[in-house]
Amino acid sequence: MKKALFVLFLSIAFAGTSLVSFAQSAAVAPKHQNKDVAKGVVVSIDTAKKEIVIKNTKTQKERTITVTDEQLAQVKVGSSVKITLETGKNVAASIIVAPAAVAASAAPATPAAPAAPAASK
Predict the structure, then answer these.
(1) How far is 36 from 55, CA to CA, in rounded Å?
(2) Which of 10, 40, 84, 117 could form a disulfide with 54 if both were Cys (CB 3.0 to 4.6 A apart)?
């Protein structure tokens, strides 16, 4: 009888700790698990429709995405962007604009003036 009670007690304790650990792992799930992400370069902007078209640099496919006025202000044609979309929609939830490359933004160096010819004696 004591063995049966001991086994029953262990079973209940094991089940209780399993449930607690399962509940903790479910609570840690990432928020953006089902979010769609679009990456690419902005190829056109339609301010009237509040839409931008981005081109994926790997697949070369274009995608039209609806944005807000604030998001429109962030992008320019040629900007590299990472857009998190609302679940199941082509609507931007957030936009991250990649910083321009330092080499591309730097002004080209001006060549030095040619040296004056040496005076002859």
Answers:
(1) 16
(2) 40
User: Which amino acid is it at 18?
Assistant: S
Q: For the residues of 31-67, what is the DSSP string, one character each?
A: TTTT-EEEEEEEEEEETTTTEEEEE-TTT--EEEEE-
How does pLDDT run across 75-102, given as a tens digit for each residue?
999 999 999 999 889 999 999 999 865 3
Handedness of CA 87, 90, 91, 94 (dihedral sign): positive
Q: Which amino acid is at 3?
A: K
CB 81 within 8 A of CB 71: no
14 inside domain: no
Strand order in the sheet with 80-85: 62-66, 51-55, 36-46, 80-85, 92-97
